[in-house]
Amino acid sequence: MRGRSDGGQSKRPILLLCVMVVCLCLLFLYFSGSNGQAGSAALEYGTKFSRSLGWGSDGDGDDGSEESIFGTGDADDVKLKSFPVCDDRHSELIPCLDRNLIYQMRMKLDLNLMEHYERHCPPPERRLNCLIPPPHGYKVPIKWPKSRDIVWKANIPHTHLAHEKSDQNWMIDAGEKIKFPGGGTHFHHGADKYIANIANMLKFKDNNINNEGMLRTVLDVGCGVASFGGYLLSSNVIAMSLAPNDVHQNQIQFALERGIPAYLGVLGTKRLPYPSRSFELAHCSRCRIDWLQRDGILLLELDRLLRPGGYFAYSSPEAYAQDEEDRRIWKKMSSLVERMCWKIAEKRNQTVIWVKPLNNDCYRSRAPGTNPPLCKRGDDPDSVWGVQMEACITPYPEQMHKDGGTGLAPWPARLTTPPPRLADLYVTADTFEKDTEMWQQRVDNYWRLLKPKIKPDTIRNIMDMKANFGSFAAALKEKDVWVMNVVPHDGPSTLKIIYDRGLIGSTHDWCEAFSTYPRTYDLLHAWTVFSDLDKRGCSAEDLLLEMDRIVRPSGFIIVRDKDTVIEFIKKYLNALHWEAVTTVDAESSPESEENEMIFIIRKKLWQPGGSQDPNPK
């Protein structure tokens, strides 16, 4: 018995040693995500590495540290890092609109209020710290204007809408390409004819929807693949095409692949990320929205967004059908809009167009206790980020009421004419004009630096990540591009100035992911965005990964920031599959930061485990 016991004891150290070796191997495999292979390492959550070095914080605000997350710019400040590649199932990941996250975190959301289609961002410990791979066979997108009508199927390998909407001409599966005939649920024979019909109903000259430059910005709710917005562009009208990531998945992805302005969003419980009085026309064609719910709160959100004298074009069965349920809805909706002081501008066939009043007279003449009520005096209609909708009417400011309208110039003069709402921000016309001139010079310089790498049609979709007054976008007026102007949620409400210039954009917080699909923009412009993150204590590494998610393979990034920021980003180029195009000192001006530089980057076209083409055609 004693001999057997001794033999068992001699084997235990060997067994323990084997277990330790296996554990060490597993730990090595877990943390070695730099080989570019999809797998468990590629699904590492959070930014543990960055936070361990003090680059970011777990919170949204300042972490109390005075030390810059970018260090001094010395080469030894930060260790280089490789990023794993996300699993293929994340190739279309939208971090703040990820329904899998909702299920995993067991969020209790009201589906009837569309809360599951609103933004719900992952906490820092659940953020995917990996590169979003392109789908197999991805190609450089077809160039505008051809892209309005045809895209590569490999880039968005989804054809269910082509079959589901085959009788409505949304899109056609055409082998290796997908074609867009310009149809929609209510305009099977083409958006161009439908748009001309709306202009005719409103008695606009020559049936031109732009109304001699007075109709410029449009909100298309439930836009489908955005053919309505795509066909407006030829009339010098720009639409914010809006739809959720719902049963018609990828509709906004198709819109952006086509080169049409679009945004993922929903009329749910929170205000849309646009300021008050931003659009001359709102449009809904079979958008399947219950406008009567919650005392008309969704229609009142449109009212907040429409300018004085703005229109709502509504094409839906309730506007023309004769069955009992549709008549009931039409009667209630007519009563609601009458109490909102809207009037019918025209009703024809399948479409009704209402018009909003030019001043507050109608609101003031309503009987006491009329619903919906006017919003409370202290309500800020331009405060939108994460703000709950309210079932109330937003009256006009006193000056706008006296003027009987916005006082905006017609397009294209509107782009450079100081708008009246500058006074809300205590900004003078002289400051506005100097800002416009300064950014024209800056953008001209950008294009000189980009010239060796681009052709006239290389760039179409642009995002200005900190747009201020929109002068960067205004400087591109002669280019065949459009710009998503992003304004920080915690800064001055300059987005209303951007809309008053005839441009479009959104409020956003760059500590979170943007509401768009991967690979949707050709050029990102980041003016002191990283320095702003430094002040708030958010992760610069997370922002780099987000920018990589948004920009297309072969797309460009222009960073205009302090030299320490530029040196920080350079350490990540290889890990992100980016290449430096050029680095130069910024032009000197009173508005420039000290040691400000311009760094132009190009994202390489790569496939997981495959070759890279740094200079695709």
Describe, in plain words, how this protein is organized in 3D:
- This protein has 617 residues and is α/β, with parallel strands linked by helices.
- Among the domains are: 207-407, Rossmann fold (3-Layer(aba) Sandwich); 420-603, Vaccinia Virus protein VP39 (Rossmann fold).
- It has 18 helices and 19 strands.
- The protein has helices spanning 2-31, 48-52, 99-104, 160-164, 191-201, 227-232, 251-257, 293-305, 324-339, 361-365, 398-403, 429-450, 471-474, 495-500, 529-536, 540-550, 563-570, 573-576; strands at residues 150-152, 172-174, 177-179, 217-221, 238-243, 262-264, 279-285, 306-315, 343-348, 351-355, 461-464, 482-488, 504-508, 521-527, 551-562, 578-585, 596-603, 605-606, 612-613.
- The strands form four sheets. It has a seven-stranded mixed β-sheet with strand order 6-5-4-7-8-10-9. It has a seven-stranded mixed β-sheet with strand order 13-12-11-14-15-17-16, sandwiched between helices.
- A hairpin with a 2-residue loop joins strand 2 and strand 3.
Q: Identify the strand order in the major beta sheet.
A: 6-5-4-7-8-10-9
Average pLDDT, rounded to a whole number, is: 88
Shape verdict: globular
Biggest sheet overview: 7 strands, mixed
- Rg result: 27 Å
Keywords: Glycoprotein, Membrane, Methyltransferase, Signal-anchor, Transferase, Transmembrane, Transmembrane helix
Family: Belongs to the methyltransferase superfamily.
InterPro entries: Put_SAM_MeTrfase, SAM-dependent_MTases_sf
Subcellular location: Golgi apparatus membrane; Membrane
